[in-house]
Specification:
- The complex is a heterodimer of chains A (543) and B (152).
- With 543 residues, chain A is mainly alpha-helical.
- Chain A has a domain at 2-128 and 517-542: Response regulator (Rossmann fold, 3-Layer(aba) Sandwich).
- Chain A is built from 22 helices and 4 strands.
- Chain A has helices at 15-29, 49-54, 82-102, 109-114, 132-165, 177-182, 191-206, 209-222, 227-239, 243-261, 268-271, 274-311, 318-329, 336-349, 354-380, 387-401, 409-414, 416-437, 457-481, 483-492, 502-512, 532-542, and strands spanning 2-8, 33-38, 57-62, 77-80.
- The longest helix of chain B is centred in the first third of the chain and has 14 residues, at 22-35.
- Chain B has a single domain (10-151), classed as Mannitol-specific EII, Chain A.
- By secondary structure, chain B is of the alpha/beta class.
- In chain B, strands 1, 2, 3, 4, 5 and 6 form a 6-stranded mixed β-sheet that branches.
- Chain B is globular, with a radius of gyration of 14 Å.
- Classes of the chains: A mainly alpha (543), B alpha/beta (152).
- The interface between A and B is medium-sized, with 28 and 28 residues.
Chain lengths: 543, 152
Amino acid sequence: MKIVAVTACPTGIAHTYMAAEALEVAAEEAGHTITVETQGSAGSTPLTESQLAEADAAIFAADVEVRDKERFAHLPLVAVGVKKAISGAPGLITQAEEAAANAPARAAAPASATSGGPAAPAGAKAPAGPGVASRVRAWLMTGVSFVIPFVAAGGLLIALGFALGGYQINLPDDAPLYEEILSGSFDAGSLTAWGALAFGIGSAAFSFLVPVLAGYIAYAMADRPALVPGFVGGAIAVTTGAGFLGGLVAGFVAGGLVMWIKTWRVPRALAGIMPVVVIPLLSSAVVGLLMYVVVGRPIAAATEGLTNWLNGLSGTNAVLLGLLLGLMMCFDMGGPVNKAAYTFAVAGLTTPSPTALTIMAAVMAAGMVPPLAMALATVVRGSLFTEVERENGRAAWLLGASFISEGAIPFAAADPFRVIPSIMAGGAVTGALSMAFGTTLRAPHGGLFVVPLMGNPLGFLAAVVIGTLVATALVLALKSFGRRRSADDVAGSVGDAPTEAAPTATTTAASTTAATTAASTTASTTASTTASTTASTTAGATA
Amino acid sequence: MTTDTALITVDLVDLDLPAADRATVVRALAQRLVAAGRVTDLDQFLADIEAREAQMPTGLEGGIGIPHCRSAAVTAPTLGFGRSAAGVDFGAEDGPADLVFLIAAPAGGGDEHMTVLAALARRLMRKNFKDTLRSATDPAEAADFIAKEVSA
């Protein structure tokens, strides 16, 4: 039997090569031929077309994303973490033998590797019984892990902007910053100008947040062809104001759609251009249409409805109003509901009445709670969070302090049903308390940086602290409650690479190896018993 | 290969590591790398090692610990080798490590010099490589053996 394998580890200097050595020895002892591509720092010799075409099975032993894995689309695959190959290479060879034996007749398969063009990366993964939840979570985490650097870089730049320039840097009637810079009227001696610049750069980074989230969820589900519809759908979620929840929808729809398209039987002539032209084109059109019409319109209507409803609430009990606004601020961090509440508060500032100023204070206080609560939670019970989340938690302190609610998005996206209710409760408490304390504020943004401008700043701080404690306690309780189920995820995440999609491979491999010999979330093909139907359609698609 | 850039020299071998915890042992070996001019900033290097260790422990079954990192504080690919009679816990499932390989790689990747580290990593999987190092009686013998193996 002929086997091809890829080994890769985060540092790329040790485990990659140890795993390669172990696999080579084990394969030789079992009487097989193996070629290992070591994707490490000493450079890697790519597998040749003929090695790929002649192979009977593929092994991925990797803690980071395998590069160009479309090449393996036609092969039964065993995907595990890199340490598994070092400690148990003979077992992996056996698994590869079984995977090859269970694979459907693959007379058609080598054709795809020898056809010259890029093989259609067929690989819709049948969401097989027990693995579904952990797969969805792995997809989500891939998206989230790509978003975190954007949140940190953008958020901290925005915070820096406020620190330098105060809240004046983002007033709506300002001329666009780039006009100032291009026309040479940028005042290099003014802190406010530098603050505005930092704010502008940070905002640019933030504008990628939802598209990157959607794009990489889709990528995790269905590989490179799904990046385009994911990004496009995410960008439309931004345009239509659907926020990160809209982005989650876009990501999953795009990924699912591409998974499905990949199962189509297409003429051989078309197969070569499927991943680069046909799939991105078709899926973007469909996802875009859905995002505008099916998701966008109701959201626009809902936003308008919420705004009207809020405007009609004048005269309601102030504490109740604060509670409502707090709930809204923390529901979708930058999405339509949050925006309705925020816009309502900012609109009041133009006709400053004492009530409008208390509303602004309540809205800002509540909006600071989500990142602060998440930051606190990662400190109090770090074990309930993944390594990347803990890192994000460190940045979230400053993001929360600067009233950048988006700092909590990575947490909310990764675990919406536990995180969102918790921070909403905390935000509600904060909003209500801020109103009860009669805190006032005339700046629309700035977080702690504008505390000196407040009426009753101590009341404001107390409201924020109490709400943060409530949200933290709740999220820890909910996460501990669901702990038994997520124990696998936590174990799997030990091997997370800090910067990218490793959680995907590791988590899935850890939790599904037993049930399905070979199911890598993002891998292009599967050859387990549960997915054998998929495998046969796969062969068909590339024939 | 000149002595300046050899993967390992006799000064980088410690056959009698202090019986202590991982951090102490790594620091002891790292200090040898600093003394040999291979590492420019001890604290930075140790922090990078710790960061890698935090991702996933580097202990391997069979009594081996391979603390390693790519670091801006490293000037050339270097191996520090140590032996601990009592063993040091590197997080392997089957217990402490008696052979410790401190692998230091410069930050820039893809350098052809990195192949020497790849060769080393492959040797770590071979039983006779480990056996020889376990029975080596003096640092020069161990250093020569490793140098010969990775250049083969």
